[in-house]
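Re: the request from the purification team.
They wanted to know what the chain is likely to look like in 3D before they choose a buffer screen. I agreed to run a prediction and write the result into the notebook, where they can find it.
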Amino acid sequence: MPSEIILFTFIVVFIYGLCIGSFLNVCIYRIPLKENIAVNRSHCMSCGGQLKWYDLVPLFSYLFLQGRCRYCKEKISIQYPLIESINGLGYVLIFIVNGINLTSILYSLAFSALIVLSVIDWKTYEIPLPINIFILALGVIRAVLDYENLIDYIIGFVCVSGFLLLLFFATKGRGIGGGDIKLMAAAGLLLGWKNIILALVIGCVVGSIIHIARMKISKTDHVLAFGPYLSVGIFIAMLWGDPIIRWYLSMFNLN
């Protein structure tokens, strides 16, 4: 494929990611409040003024308005352009690593869902069930498309989530949350058993490092929102899971 077409494709993917990122901000704000994410019109969080379409152009409206509401001039949270940019760049990275195919589309949609649940879990310590159901639906599509390896996805659905469920009962719910268990079941169906185990390991390592650092810096105890760290592990496994696993096994001549 000519380089010009590839570049154009990635630009389109980035723009599409920005647009989806704008919708993710709506989900992040409205889902915890039980508000409708499709019907209610967007409005300023400070003055309540309804926003026009030209106030909602992803990233560019924020830059054009210099980060302030057109009406009340209050600052707009940096979260909005940040989420849009992360989602756009994440889409491009997924397509670069996995190629232009249906799997990349499924992974991109899953990445968007991981962003939403990570921010909500970080703020509320809850992972909304509809987001896990959405990831589960993506996993079903992936398993059906790759039906020759269906058993790998079925094992992925239960191997990590089953372990976490045992941990949930053993600690009477104090060691792990129900949303985390459902997340790893859904993601396991999407990734397969090898990559979901890798995702758990990465999530635990990243979570331990950041959580300890936060406690050291702030000198206070923190309740651990595990969803964001598991999401990091899932995202890394999506992109580089197979090479990481092959590298690890090669150290023991098991590859």
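For the purification team: The chain has a mean pLDDT of 88.
Please add any questions underneath this entry.
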